[in-house]
């Protein structure tokens, strides 16, 4: 994935270059100074859930099923560490996000050079 992505609306960043964005069907009109958006990308980690989340969820389920007397699920520290290691390993193998996040969104204004590159692109 690219280190920078571009967007026409500042919300959906899916284009690797200004040229790619300008040659889409969504971009039927553009000119020097037309505002687009540029953002840096970052990869998500693989820590979607952790042991605390699972333990809390089990505790909630115990309460829902067993009532107040069964709402104190507290595994040992060793068991918690074992679960944490398992979740980390499993997520690294099976839960790597196929998408990226964006940060530092800034306006990008189309330049004459951008227009020239796109017109050369259209001629081929």
Short descriptors:
4 helices; 3-stranded antiparallel β-sheet; single chain; 124 residues; alpha+beta
Main sheet strand line-up: 1-2-3
Count the beta strands.
Answer: 3
Q: How many domains comprise the coordinates? A: 2
Q: What percent of residues are in strands?
A: 15-25%
Straight-line distance between termini: 25 Å
Q: Which structural class is indicated by helix and strand composition? A: alpha+beta
Number of helices: 4
Largest pleated sheet: 3 strands, antiparallel
Helix content: 40-55%
Overall spatial form: elongated
Q: What order do the SSEs take from the amino end to the carboxyl end, as H and E?
A: EHEHHEH
The pLDDT mean sits at: 89
Low-confidence stretches: none
Give structural notes:
The protein is of the alpha+beta class. It folds into two domains: 1-44 and 98-124, no CATH class; 46-96, no CATH class. Helix content is 41%, strand content 19%. It is built from four helices and three strands; from the N terminus they run βαβααβα. It has helices at residues 18-22, 51-66, 77-94, 112-123, and strands spanning 4-7, 35-43, 100-109. A three-stranded antiparallel sheet has the order 1-2-3, with no helix packed on it. The longest helix has 18 residues, at 77-94. The radius of gyration is 24 Å and the shape is elongated. The chain starts with a strand and ends with a helix.
């Amino acid at each position: 994935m690219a280190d920078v992505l571009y967007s026409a609306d500042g919300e959906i960043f899916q284009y690797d270059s200004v040229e790619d964005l300008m040659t889409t069907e969504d971009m039927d009109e553009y000119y020097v100074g037309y505002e687009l958006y540029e953002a840096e990308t970052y990869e998500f980690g693989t820590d979607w859930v952790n042991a605390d989340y699972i333990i809390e969820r089990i505790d909630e389920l115990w309460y829902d099923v067993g009532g107040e007397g069964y709402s104190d699920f507290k595994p040992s520290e060793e068991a918690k560490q074992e679960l944490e290691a398992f979740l980390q390993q499993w997520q690294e193998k099976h839960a790597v996000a196929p998408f990226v996040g964006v940060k530092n969104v800034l306006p990008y204004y189309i330049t004459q050079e951008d227009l020239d590159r796109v017109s050369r692109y259209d001629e081929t």
